[in-house]
Each structure stands twice: as C-alpha cells, then as structure tokens.
C-alpha cells in the first residue's frame, strides 16, 4: 500500500517510520531542507534529534507529489494548520481513500474535531483518528505502546488497524470517534494543569486530584457531545491523560510546569520548536462547555492562566476554593 503522512514533526515522522517498515511511505515536510535531510541522511534533526529513520522512508516538500498517488492519507500537522494543509492537498487526493488524523486538538472558531474537518473538505472519504498514550520518542525507540484507531465503520477500522499494527505498537479499534477525539484533545489542557502542580510543588495528592477531576471534565463534555462514557476510561481517555500528565516528555506538561515556576507563557512557547496543543484547546473546551451548559472549572482556570488573567499559583488557589459537592456533580 502507498501511504502518505502529511507533517514531518515528531509524531508524523514516527508514524511514517513505523508504517514504512511494511508499506511504501512518503512524508510531507513543510520545510524543504528537512525533506532533504530525511532523504539524504535519514534523520529529522528538527523534531527527532538523535534518531535514525528507515532508509525506505521518502520525504518531499511538495504536497501534490506527496498525495497524488496515496492509497491512505495520514494528517499529522497541529490542529491550527490542519484545515489549511488539507485544503491545499484536496485537489490531489485520489477518490475515496481513507484519511486518518493524528492531531489531538480542536479547531478554534468552528470548535470542530479533526475528523469533522476531513468530512467537510473530503466528503465521502472514510475519516478516522489515531489516538492514545503515544509519546513519539518512546515509540520510535521501540518501547511497547498501545493506541486506538477510531472510525464509525468497524470494517474500515479493522483494515486500518492491519496497516498500522507494528510489533510493539498494539493498535485497538473503536467506533466512538467523538469520545476518542475529545479525550485526546482535552487531556492536553489537563496536562498543563498537572504540569503547573509539578512546577508549584503542590504535592502528588493535589496532582492526582487535578488529574481525576480533569478526567471527570473530559467525560462530562465528551458524553454531552455524544461520546460514550466507557471510552473515557480507556486508552484514549484515562490512558492518554496519565501518559501526558506523568511524563516529562510531554510538551503540554512542560508548558504547565514552566508556568508553575513563574515563567511567562510567551517565553515558554518561544523556546519550544514543537506544538503544545492544550494552549489553544483550553479556550475551545470552554466554548464547548458553555454550549452544553457545563462549567468545566479546570479548563476555565487554565484558559485564565493562558490569557494572563491568573498566575499559576492563583489558579491553584482558585481551584481549591471551588465548593466540593457530590463527586458526580459537574464542578
Ligand atoms: N509528539 C507526540 O508524541 C504526539 C503523539 C500523539 C499525537 N500528537 C499530536 O500530533 C500532532 C502533531 O504533533 P507533533 O508532535 O508531530 O508536532 P511537531 O510540533 O513536532 O510538528 C508539527 C509538524 O507540523 C508542521 N506544522 C506546524 N504548523 C503548521 C501549519 N500551520 N501548517 C502546516 N504545517 C505545520 C511542522 O512543520 C511540523 O512538521 C499534534 O496535534 C499532537 O498533539 C503528538
Ligand atoms: O507532548 P504532548 O503533550 O503533545 O503529548 C504527546 C502525546 O499526545 C501523548 O500521548
């Protein structure tokens, strides 16, 4: 099969490297110099310094060349660039090939999930999300992991599972696309909160409380949007939340940790080469919460920190002052 991965960041390059072991795989890099380094030296020093990539993996900076012969298209650019890149690729995408989103975010303004953007721009193409506790560098270094391919049609999901399943990467299927995408996007916001706890040194009990209440917020919003509650206890919910909140490799947790240590958001983001999706997702989650009548206090608080209305320390004070009612209440 001919597989094209659009986006040569840390996750796009990792997934392309795994798929390239069994399929003809092309990765599109926005940066022409990076495409050349992948082709000539089989490295991606910009996003995956120190790793060797398979020699079979081909890169190009030309979107038409990358997509026109693809039999499976995988989109791996951050959510803020997703629509623009897909729109530019659209005229070259062969009819009816499946399109998988790797992006864990929501579109600002429209509040859409990435598979909804795929459906809007490429109607009739099967749209899927690949999501789960998947820190790119661990997977590229060959450590075992599990992930989920989510699409409503389980026949398509099973076919995609077959393409993506690789030795130590165990790929499950799920039909609950809403639940899987909401879990993947919102865990990044909670990871910023968990990182802040780390930076502030408020303790592991507090961190556990924030992670658990964070999962409650994710589940409330996800089920209100049509996701199934069991999904949020699985790999794309609790699994990814744990990996992202616990791991020092997480960019979102890193942003939170720096904020907790008193750094300015602009400085933190300016020093990073990679994306931290939670920074943009917090506001979208708040808007979705408003739409569904849900208070989502952790998302609100993180949005206030991102807007500069609250310091990390004040944010934690504020969360402490929220009245504790029944555990099943939405606040
Ligand atoms: N890195 C991981 O461990 C990991 C794991 C699972 C999911 N994800 C998700 O995958 C998505 C991509 O993450 P990543 O880690 O590869 O990001 P990254 O920051 O490492 O790389 C992003 C890639 O997209 C390109 N890009 C950035 N902005 C763009 C724009 N506006 N238009 C076109 N291209 C643009 C960059 O050039 C780069 O090739 C994110 O949504 C992330 O949450 C990441
Ligand atoms: O580095 P982060 O915070 O974007 O997290 C990466 C993955 O989404 C973890 O599953």
Itemize the secondary structure elements and their pairings.
Blueprint: E1 2-6, H1 10-19, E2 24-28, H2 32-41, E3 58-60, H3 63-67, E4 72-75, H4 79-89, E5 99-101, H5 114-121, E6 127-131, H6 136-140, E7 145-150, H7 154-164, E8 169-174, H8 177-200, H9 204-224, H10 235-246, H11 251-260, H12 265-270, H13 278-291, H14 297-306, H15 312-321
Parallel strand pairs: 1-2, 1-4, 2-3, 4-5, 5-6, 7-8
Antiparallel strand pairs: 6-7
Helix pairs in contact: 4-5, 8-9, 8-10, 8-11, 8-13, 9-10, 13-14, 14-15
The structure holds nicotinamide-adenine-dinucleotide and SN-glycerol-3-phosphate (G3P).
Short description:
By secondary structure, this protein is α/β, with parallel strands linked by helices.
Helix % is: 40-55%
User: Kindly state the mean pLDDT as a whole number?
Assistant: 96
Here the CATH topology of the largest domain equals Rossmann fold
In CATH, what is the class of the largest domain?
Alpha Beta
Q: What string, H for helix and E for strand, traces the elements in order?
A: EHEHEHEHEHEHEHEHHHHHHHH
What is the subunit arrangement here? single chain
The CATH architecture name of the largest domain reads: 3-Layer(aba) Sandwich
Main sheet attributes: strand count, strand direction, barrel closure: 8 strands, mixed
Number of helices: 15
Active site: 187
Main location: cytoplasm
Binding site for sn-glycerol 3-phosphate: 104, 132, 187, 240, 250-252
Family: Belongs to the NAD-dependent glycerol-3-phosphate dehydrogenase family.
Task: Report on this structure.
- By secondary structure, the protein is α/β, with parallel strands linked by helices.
- The chain folds into two domains: 2-175, NAD(P)-binding Rossmann-like Domain (Rossmann fold, 3-Layer(aba) Sandwich); 178-321, N-(1-d-carboxylethyl)-l-norvaline Dehydrogenase, domain 2 (Orthogonal Bundle).
- It is 50% helix and 11% strand.
- It is built from 15 helices and eight strands.
- It has helices at residues 10-19, 32-41, 63-67, 79-89, 114-121, 136-140, 154-164, 177-200, 204-224, 235-246, 251-260, 265-270, 278-291, 297-306, 312-321; strands at 2-6, 24-28, 58-60, 72-75, 99-101, 127-131, 145-150, 169-174.
- Helix 4 (79-89) packs parallel to helix 5.
- The longest helix has 24 residues, at 177-200.
- The termini are far apart.
- The model has no long low-confidence stretch (mean pLDDT 96).
- The chain binds nicotinamide-adenine-dinucleotide (NAD) and SN-glycerol-3-phosphate.
- Nicotinamide-adenine-dinucleotide is lined by residues 7-12, 29-31, 47, 76-81, 84-85, 102-105, 134-136, 274-275, 277.
- Residues 176-316 form the Glycerol-3-phosphate dehydrogenase NAD-dependent C-terminal domain.
- It is found in: Cytoplasm.
- It comes from Planobispora takensis.
């Amino acid at each position: 099969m001919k597989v094209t991965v659009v986006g040569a960041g840390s996750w796009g390059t990792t997934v392309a490297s795994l798929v390239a072991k069994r399929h003809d795989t092309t990765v599109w890099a926005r940066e022409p110099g990076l495409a050349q380094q992948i082709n000539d030296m089989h490295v991606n020093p910009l996003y995956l310094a120190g790793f060797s990539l398979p020699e079979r993996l081909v890169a190009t900076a030309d979107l038409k060349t990358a997509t026109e012969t693809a039999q499976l298209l995988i989109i791996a650019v951050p959510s803020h660039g997703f629509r623009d890149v897909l729109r530019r690729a659209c005229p070259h995408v062969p009819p009816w090939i499946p399109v998988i989103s790797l992006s864990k975010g929501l579109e600002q303004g429209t509040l859409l999930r990435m598979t909804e953007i795929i459906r809007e721009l490429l109607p009739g193409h099967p749209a899927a999300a690949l999501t789960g506790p998947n820190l790119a560098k661990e997977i590229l270094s060959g450590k075992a992991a599990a992930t989920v391919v989510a699409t409503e049609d389980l026949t398509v999901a099973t076919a995609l599972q077959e393409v993506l399943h690789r030795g130590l990467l165990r790929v499950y299927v799920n039909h609950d696309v809403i639940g899987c995408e909401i879990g993947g996007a919102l865990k990044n916001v909670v990871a910023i909160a968990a990182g802040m706890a780390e930076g502030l040194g408020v303790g592991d009990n507090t961190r556990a409380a924030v992670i658990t209440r964070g999962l409650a917020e994710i589940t409330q919003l996800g089920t209100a949007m049509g996701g199934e509650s069991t999904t949020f206890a699985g790999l794309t919910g609790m699994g990814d939340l744990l990996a992202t909140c616990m791991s020092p490799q997480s960019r979102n947790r890193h942003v939170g940790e720096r904020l907790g240590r008193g750094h300015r958001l602009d400085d933190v983001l300016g020093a990073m080469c990679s994306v931290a999706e939670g920074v943009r997702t917090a506001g979208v989650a708040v808007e979705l919460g408003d739409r569904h009548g849900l208070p989502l206090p952790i998302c609100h608080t993180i949005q206030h920190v991102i807007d500069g209305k609250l310091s990390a320390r004040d944010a934690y004070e504020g969360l402490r002052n929220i009245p504790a009612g029944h555990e099943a209440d939405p606040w």
